[in-house]
């Protein structure tokens, strides 16, 4: 790579970062549905045609923001898992859940972009899947390690649900039995339900000590899913 090429790539990277930062500011002020490439260009002092060279459409800019948000959340979950080290599976699960909550509270608009109401007229492409899966893969790893190490209680599974649970296990964790896959996904969904309730105001005038309540709740989720 020549010096000129390197300078051009750095300049492009800086402009891309500036576009994303302004778009995030607009998300906070107006919401994802009102995100406008023209408004982003205007705030950055760019002509619209110049911005289109970086993001040809609003949907491509939204996709970039969604991937960034999923990656940031996934990185927070992975960091918490790594910091937990050789902790018991329950403690590792709690640490990851608390990292998810901490990230969400620090980045409410980005959390809303990926776990809030769908953006009208936007359909996330498959390119978002690897980033979206990062946090889930951390949780799968905790259950996998528990089953291979200190033990994991396999919860009863009704005959009616078994085919769906078997399909689920085959898709997300073929080495885990259907009982574990079903319990794990239920815990995952309830984790984000707790975070969303707090972030979107459903706990207002209901729960005051939210940090302690969250820890109590996710501890119950972990044990209810069979983690020892």
Automatic annotation (TrEMBL):
InterPro entries: Homeodomain-like_sf (IPR009057), HTH-type_TetR-like_transc_reg (IPR050109), HTH_TetR (IPR001647), MT1864/Rv1816-like_C (IPR025996), Tet_transcr_reg_TetR-rel_C_sf (IPR036271). Keywords: DNA-binding, Transcription, Transcription regulation. This is AcrR family transcriptional regulator. Pfam families: TetR_C_33, TetR_N. One of its GO terms (molecular function) is DNA-binding transcription factor activity. Residues 36-55 bind DNA. Residues 13-73 form the HTH tetR-type domain.
